[in-house]
Amino acid sequence: MDARMQRRVQRYGWDRAADAYEPGWKNSLADAHAETLRLAAARPGERALDLACGTGLISLPLCAAVGPGGHVTATDLSDEMVAAVQRNAVAQGLGNLQAFRADAEHVPTVADGSVDLVTCALGLMYMPDPDRSAAESLRVLRPGGRAVVAVWGERSKCGWADIFPIVDARVKSSVCPLFFRLGTGSTLPQLLQEAGFTGIRTTRLSCTLPYPDADSALEAAFVGGPVALAYNRFDASTRAAAHAEYLASIARYRTSRGYRIPGEFVVCRGTKPRDDSRV
Ligand SMILES: C[S@@+](CC[C@H](N)C(=O)[O-])C[C@H]1O[C@@H](n2cnc3c(N)ncnc32)[C@H](O)[C@@H]1O
């Protein structure tokens, strides 16, 4: 799939996934989000940029952390996600958020050196050119500012990973071609280092994706995530066959309390050098 098509699949797929995203994934991603926020260590008065912000699970805690004297810019490729983060900020009474649609590889309206902190949680795996997003993060940071990026970890540690080949086989394409590459070995810290970040710290953490029953596991995998666009086009029999195959792939994680699917995240923090002559 070429880069332009990959962006379209992501943009319109996440538009469809927006309503089901938090019910399907918020609990499962809680550890990755907590670690992202811990490494970000946002302080009152700071200016933050949250790339691929989704519904705001990072942006909104950042708004609270930087306080009324600080500011958060939240951007996402999907219009529906941008609408969701705006709605959620209003519902929580947070007035220091600005959100707009933007590709994380190209955020021209955010000026060079204008933010203290960039975050990107569980978004980089969907981008055709993650190096460009890292370069863009470096550009917008002030010298001494930091970026925190979270991605899914090794494929073998993510028990739900068969969702991709199951959907890919039915669309005869690769919906998320680079998905597990960034979480493999030292790929993510290396990417940040090659972009020009220094002082890189990495956390690799295990998690469990809890689903009370098969329906909620299916809803999260097919409706609330990156394959939503492809799935939306499946007819009833294709859906039924894909569901059966996915449930077979996670059957070993079924317990008396529903599904407990293992997962892994990698979270990295890097700093923009104070001497930014390399940039
Ligand atoms: C798994 S969600 C993560 C959302 C949020 N950061 C969180 O941690 O809950 C992935 C998000 O990445 C966004 N996304 C995918 N490709 C993108 C791109 N090239 N630029 C910006 N956002 C992108 C999607 O629209 C979606 O909202």
Secondary-structure map:
Elements: H1 3-25, H2 30-40, E1 47-51, H3 59-66, E2 71-76, H4 79-91, E3 97-101, E4 115-121, H5 130-140, E5 141-152, H6 163-171, H7 187-195, E6 198-211, H8 214-223, H9 228-232, H10 236-249, E7 254-255, E8 258-271
Helix pairs in contact: 1-4, 1-8, 5-7, 6-10
The structure holds S-adenosylmethionine.
Mean pLDDT over all positions = 94
In sequence order, what are the helices and strands, one letter per element?
A: HHEHEHEEHEHHEHHHEE
What would CATH call the architecture of the domain at 3-155 and 176-209 and 264-271?
A: 3-Layer(aba) Sandwich
Distance N terminus to C terminus?
Answer: 31 Å
CATH topology of the domain at 3-155 and 176-209 and 264-271: Rossmann fold
Each distinct ligand: S-adenosylmethionine
CATH superfamily assignment of the domain at 3-155 and 176-209 and 264-271? Vaccinia Virus protein VP39
| Rg value | 18 Å
Total helical elements: 10
Shape: globular
The share of residues in helices is: 40-55%
User: How many β-strands, per DSSP?
Assistant: 8
Structural class, from helix and strand content? alpha/beta
Please report the first level of CATH classification, the CATH class of the domain at 3-155 and 176-209 and 264-271.
Alpha Beta
Please tell me about this protein's structure.
- By secondary structure, this protein is an alpha/beta fold.
- It has a domain at 3-155 and 176-209 and 264-271: Vaccinia Virus protein VP39 (Rossmann fold, 3-Layer(aba) Sandwich), CATH 3.40.50.
- 41% of the residues lie in helices and 23% in strands.
- The protein is built from 10 helices and 8 strands.
- Strands 1, 2, 3, 4, 5, 6, 7 and 8 form an 8-stranded mixed beta sheet that branches.
- Helix 5 crosses helix 7 (187-195) and helix 6 packs antiparallel against helix 10.
- The chain is globular, with a radius of gyration of 18 Å.
- The mean pLDDT is 94.
- S-adenosylmethionine is lined by residues 7, 10, 14, 29, 52-54, 57-58, 76-78, 81, 103-105, 121-123, 126-127.
